[in-house]
């Protein structure tokens, strides 16, 4: 019988916070979280976690003015040996296991979603072929809320490719729970229609000696804001977080990460790359991307090894990229920690080198962009997905005339 126990929401108002949304005297890892949307204040640009997001373009899913679902998110995949798919109520005791929402929209998604999809890979099961999951939006003009969880039991091994497509206004939570000594690769492709507003909280829970490779690829949508967080439950866990995003005129793409090292001897590696382009004659807002990388090493997380990097390539005038890496360290007994970020234009030396060998300027520019993204694309373990993303980058370049 399904356990309908609901995670206990906060009964008290949110604590006093500083301008970063963190309780006074606490660390970034102690940012307020709750399953109850009523425990959060309405976002404003005074809040650090919302200061880059164009709130007026969220269609009211952030402030309570448009939170009635008028459509549904459809999650579909084929079942196979060692893999089970369940549709449960959000009161199921497994829902929310990986972490509570850290912002009002994620809490709204949890509150408004009446069911969740749980995909489980059985203990010791190795699934050799990628598991393809499609997530269809509710359609243009509709609002939907969703919750999906992928669970790998101990010693399991699987790769998931999640295709997000269609239209509408979407707020969701997704959980990726990786059991002890399990290995998960997940590639999430946001290939939404142009009308989409999509906000998501992604919660990754990594067990003892477990490995997760998470790659977020964002092309479509009017506004996409993805907030992944990583939590380790035992020593030896490894998390690789990769991302690729490409913004055109009218698009706002935001990736906001938190990796919380609170147990010893865990590793994290973060690599995100983005490109932006626009048209000076367009009446749409300029392309804007935001990348925030918060890594916290707590005092008890001895032996932590972490590094984060973000690179952004601005292809045309007017586009804007914000890149903010943050590293907070509470102990000196670590294996290593570092970060880097950059926003820049084409490397003219690379262009000159290619053109000096008879390659035309337009082809040389495309080669430079493909090479820029190659480091991220090559980390994806599914060849057909690598090819698909490379083709998508080429189509973006062709559309801009580059």
TrEMBL record:
Residues 1-20 are annotated as: Disordered. InterPro entries: Fe-S_cluster_assembly_SufBD, SUF_FeS_clus_asmbl_SufBD_core, SUF_FeS_clus_asmbl_SufBD_sf, SUF_FeS_clus_asmbl_SufD. Residues 1-17 have a biased composition (Low complexity). It comes from the Bacteria. Residues 140-372 form the SUF system FeS cluster assembly SufBD core domain. Pfam families: SUFBD_core. NCBIfam families: sufD (TIGR01981). Belongs to the iron-sulfur cluster assembly SufBD family. This is Fe-S cluster assembly protein SufD. It comes from Dietzia aurantiaca.
